[in-house]
Every structure is written in C-alpha cells, then in structure tokens.
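User: My collaborator sent over this chain with a note saying "see what the structure looks like." That's all I know about it. Can you take a look?
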Amino acid sequence: MSSPTPAIAMKKPARALKLRAANLSDYSQIAALECRFGLASRSYEEWSHVWLANPAYRERENGWNIGWVLEEGGGRIVGSMGNVPLAYECGGKRLLAASGRSWVVEPEYRSLSLQLLDRVVNQPDIDVYLNTSVSTSSIDSVNLFECSRVPVGSWDQSAFWVTKHRAFFESVLVKRHGALLRPLTYPLSAAFRFKDWMSQSAVRAHAGDVESCSRFDARFDDFWEALRERYPRVFLAVRTREILDWHFHVPLRDRSLWIGAVVSGRSIQAYAIFDRNDNRKSGMTRVRLVDFQSLDGDVWLPSLLSWALRRCGRENVHVLESTGRWMEPHGFMRKAAPYRRKLNSWTFFYRAARPELAEHLKDPAAWAPTLFDGDASF
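Assistant: Without extra context I'll predict from the sequence alone. Here is the result:
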C-alpha cells in the first residue's frame, strides 16, 4: 500500500458509490487519480505488467481481480486499490499471498475507503495478506483488520552507509537549510570519511570474488531449488528466474538494478540484489539492499556488501541503505552498518487466513523477510 492512505472516519459522502472489480480498461482513470494524490506516474505497460506478466496471476487469470474501484453513478472512478497475487512456499507447499497496491480515494469519499481494503484482506482462496509499505496514515486501518507485525527485523528503522560524504552532507545540510551551511560540509565530510574508513575494516576485509550479473539466468532457477530444499520450514517468496524477471522488470529495463552473486563452479551460493531509490527532493542518490539469499547463512554477506559499497563509490551513489534492518539478527550486519534512521511507521504487516499457518508464522524462525516481499520493490 504505497499511498497517502485514506483516514478511517470522514464525513458521509454526498453521492452513492458503486464498489466494483477493476479491469485493465480502467487504467487512464486510475492513473489520473493516483497522480492527483502524489503517487508515481506509471505507463500502461508498467502498470499492466504487474498482472499480465505475473506468473501467479497467469495461473488464475480468470479467477483473480486486479483490484477494486469506487465509482460514481456517471462512471467516474473516485477510489482505487490494486490487488497483486504473489507465489510463496512453506513446508513444501505452494501458497498464495495477496498484496494491496496504490490505495487512493478522493477526500469526499474516504469514509468508504475501508471497503477497498476489506476486499483485498478478506478475499477468498488466499493464504496470506501481505503489506510491506504501510504508512503512518494507513497503520490504523491495517490494525483494524487484525494484521500482525512481521516478527523479524525492525521495520520502522533503516541502517545505512555513507559512500560519498561531501555529497551526502550537501543534501542533508545545504538542500534543507540553505547555502550558508556549505562551508561545514568540508570538515564534516573529512571527519566522517575517516571515522567510517576505520569502522568499515570488517567489510573491506571480506572483499571476495563477486560476479556482477546483468540479468537472471538459468543458474537462478537452480539456486531457487537448492534454497527451498535448504529451508523447507521458512515462509519464502518464490524466486524462480521467471518471477525475478517479472518482479524487477522496470529496474532491469532501466539498468538501475545491481545483482551480485557468489558463484562456485557453475552454481550460485549466494546473491544480493540492490536497486536505485534516490531522494529527488534532497538530491541524495541512494541504493537499497532489496534481497539477500544464501545457502550458507550470512557467510557471503560481507563480500556482497563490500562489492556494493565499492560500486557505490564508482557510480557516485551517496548512500547504501538496508530498510527494515532484517539482516541484523546476524552478528556481522549489526556491526557493519554505522548509521541508523527512524522511519515514520512500522511498514511490514501480514495476516494469515488459516489458524495453523497463523500459528506457524508467529515463530521468527519461519521468516526470512526482505524488501522482495509484498509490493516494496516492484
């Protein structure tokens, strides 16, 4: 739910609305509505790709709604929420998750906005509802539907490295507080560059061989098979080559996705995926750690982080960030990232549809959450 989510209680709407299933022909109205309320503009190709190229959608195309809309009597759409199917596995079984996407309603009708969320959360035949982009304005609504916080990570915080210190302080001080503070960026960047160089010796010491991949090839299918066998009790999003290509279609097309893999012979032992997530308002260039998977715990994480930090330096990226601090149960990650920032709200919630699955997912050992889950990175 990556949107300025409607409030729970507003004034009664002046006109009656119809709640109906969305269809692909609604694109122009939905896109215009999203744009009016500050959501990212997407072309029809990008918008429809979320469903038409989604393997989980294609398996049940005739029985899956792409979302729901609130419509006035004259046919004008005043509210919308997408509905994305996602393939998961746990305990050797294929599971179906649903994630809402782009929840937006015109202010006059926000008293009816929960009807859209209800359709996504309580739709039949799903195993889990996932929401990995909860905002401060939507957290009360998610709680109303008895969703739970994912029990691994700190999803109201992020950890990060500064990789271009002077540019970072320019974006933090000058862009926010004015040019008078520019002289401070020189001593600050020098001091923090030295401090970070000293504190990151553990990362530099693990600069092992990492293969930079421009695409997902057949090795990623083999890796997924090995991963699911290695962790059969973990609730894992399916990561076949086909699903990875679908999920990262836009950044792959735009060449803004970094894929690093540790390879032994012809087999992948671990990989990490990073994407560009710049802060355009401040001018800060930023890369996020989206996904890390390994057949050997976190043994290869230092090498992959070292590879990413060096690439940040080469490509003039100011910050490398790990949102949710989901790797921090592992000792290395706790020590490696020198900085923390607080997010506006806890962003990762879920609700299981069946009691036995709900009980299993209470166990932190059942989770390996990353930004690959839900709609946080597509």
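A starting point for your reply to your collaborator: The longest strand covers residues 77-90.
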